Amino acid sequence: MASASASLDDLRDGDRENPREDEGPFECRSCGVCCRDASDGRVLVSADDLLRWKRQDRTDILGQLVPGHFSQLGFAARPNGQCIHQGTAHNPNDCSIYETRAEPCKAVEAGSQECRMQRRAFRHLLPAR
Ligand code: SF4
Ligand code: SF4
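^ thats the input. predicted complex w/ iron/sulfur cluster below
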């Protein structure tokens, strides 16, 4: 995790303005890099997320939330920092609650600067092309 943060810092100072044509495809459900730097409570959930999961009776999601920053709740993570909801029977990078994932999960736009920085920092985890 520490080396990944260092890489992100390097990228913020370095080539963030220089997207390369060979960086894609930006397919979130087969990439999942965003979900691999999600240490306990780091991915916060919103009040609207909580309401929606209550309406949907998603006790499986609600019951696994942990304290995050700013008195909010967030997703728990595995020991390696990966969100506990990452991984399906068909794809280890996919989100198992994709249809009802939290608002912050949708905030990083595929192909955006933040997306590209994450993918460069975790290049070794990207699916083979
Ligand atoms: S936003 Fe970018 S880094 Fe995050 S999952 Fe999608 S393609 Fe991967
Ligand atoms: S809920 Fe899904 S999209 Fe959000 S961080 Fe976890 S695995 Fe990623």
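Helices lie at 2-13, 28-31, 47-55, 59-62, 103-107, 113-121.
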